């Protein structure tokens, strides 16, 4: 899913975090997509009919949670 060029960049550079703001695949597929490397956490909040979807995270622990704000 997504851009082949972006995936190559992530595989080559292996940043700790990659934020994505738009994708046409379903939110479930986008939220559970494969990482380009074990080092990179990719976040794309997706969408929800129930309200605004956001991701809240702790950068020190590298933990993230998807939330719906109604």
Report what the structure shows.
21% of the residues lie in helices and 29% in strands. The chain has 70 residues and is an alpha+beta fold. It has a two-stranded parallel sheet with strand order 1-2. It has a two-stranded antiparallel sheet with strand order 3-4. Strand 1, helix 2 and strand 2 form a beta-alpha-beta unit.
Structural category: alpha+beta
Q: What percentage of amino acids are in beta strands?
A: 25-35%
Radius of gyration: 12 Å
Major sheet characteristics? 2 strands, parallel
Question: Mean pLDDT score, rounded?
Answer: 78
What is the topology, as strand order, of the major beta sheet? 1-2
- Helix proportion range: 10-25%
Query: What is the CA-CA span between the terminal residues?
Result: 28 Å
Number of E-state strands: 4
Helices and strands, in N-to-C order?
HEHEEE
Query: Based on CA inertia axes, which overall geometry fits?
Result: flat
- Spans of at least 5 consecutive residues whose pLDDT stays below 50 are 29-33
How many helices?
Answer: 2
Quick tags:
single chain, 70 residues, two-stranded parallel sheet
Structural topology:
Elements lengths: L3 H10 L3 E3 L7 H5 L9 E3 L8 E7 L4 E7 L1
Parallel strand pairs: 1-2
Antiparallel strand pairs: 3-4
Summarize the structure.
By secondary structure, the protein is α+β, with helices and mostly antiparallel strands.
């Amino acid at each position: 899913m997504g851009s082949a060029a972006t995936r190559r960049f992530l595989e080559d550079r292996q940043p700790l975090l990659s934020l994505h703001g738009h994708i046409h695949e379903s939110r479930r597929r986008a939220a559970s997509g494969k990482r380009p490397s074990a080092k990179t956490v990719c976040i794309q909040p997706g969408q929800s009919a129930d309200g605004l979807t956001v991701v809240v995270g702790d950068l020190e622990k590298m933990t993230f949670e998807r939330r719906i704000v109604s």
